[in-house]
Design a protein that fits this description.
The chain is an alpha/beta fold and 427 residues long. It has helices at residues 3-11, 47-50, 59-71, 82-95, 108-123, 140-143, 179-195, 221-232, 286-289, 304-319, 322-342, 371-383, 409-426; strands at residues 26-30, 33-36, 41-44, 100-105, 127-131, 160-164, 202-205, 235-239, 266-269, 280-285, 347-353, 356-361, 386-387, 389-391, 398-401. Helix 12 crosses helix 13.
Length: 427
Amino acid sequence: MSSLHQRHRAVSPDWLALYYENPLEITHGEGRHVWDADGRGYLDFFGGILTTMTAHALPEVTRAVSEQAGRIIHSSTLYLSRPMVELAERIATLSGIPDARVFFTTSGTEANDTALLLATAYRGSNQVLAMRNSYHGRSFSAVSVTGNSAWSPTSLSPLQTLYVHGGVRTRGPYAHLGDAEFIAACVADLEDLIGHTHEPAALIAEPIQGIGGFTSPPDGLYAAFRRVLDRHGILWISDEVQTGWGRTGEHFWGWQAHGENGPPDMLTFAKGIGNGMSIGGVVARADVMNCLDANSISTFGGSPVTTAAALANLSYLLDHDLQGNARRVGGLLLQRLRAIGAASECVWEVRGRGLMIGIELVKPGTDQANPEAAAAVLEAAREGGLLIGKGGGHHTSVLRIAPPLSLTIPEAEEGAKILAEALRSVA
């Protein structure tokens, strides 16, 4: 055990998770690569949990941070901030939500917490619909709408949460159905659930579940849900903390795969927009955002430095068509990984979109989750010079692959080769 690891354990909570048997200290990065304290380099296929969206040490972002910090670092929302207003204007336009208002937070957890506050106040109800296998953050309210026991440390809650089918396509009671029948069954379940409850405030859902292992329903499920929700006045919150900003390649937002009946009433964002800076937020229709009858501020949300960084990062992403790159390079990477998975008895499914890919591992010859294999592949990939993530329902048996959106084709090929060797080493 390293001295830094010993010091970490002495001052940190026991439940604060670390990857690897010998945890890694990352000291610096550039592009799609990072280096540890021993000087060893790694190809980064996880980006600090989908947060380093464009590239490590992107000059445009570091320059924006430095220049803004040289002027003023902090003022709070009690004062006007030009970078905050400019970023809000751009996000409101990009969101697709009509008459949109934007409120900045410091994280995705806080963004979802705010969205739940708005929904329950607007509807006068503390009942919330959420998806099974979901994850929405670590705050008291966000944990209470998380449908994943591995990340829900308490059953106490300020909300009454009811869980809906549909977030996982290949497991559960409807897995055997075709896509159209799957959607119909999930809609019928939603209709039945609402019929047995008080009027819920909102449905909160990730278009692609992150911690849950990059699972998703067929396209159009949430559009079909929207028809039901609208009849009851129930709001739809799309949690875009991991799916936003073009990561899926096909769409700028995850909700757009379900946009037949219009945009969500609210969407939440964080992670990638700041490229590592601590920023999140909520976009909502004006009547929803303005429903609160008390004053509020955000001391750190929308700070001059984080919004300046986010503006530079968003401009780089749009100017360099990183959504298109995620579609092209992600499609190639997904193709390679599916070929690798077909040759492994441990691989149940390779799924995903763009540069958001999950590899679900099982015990050979079964459909039983294999978290031990996932942990072993994580270690083997590191030894090969590749950093990846884990997730997947209650069993953590899914390898999560989400590199910066500027990933090149040679880097995708290199990562696939390392992953192939790692999977062979534990088969």
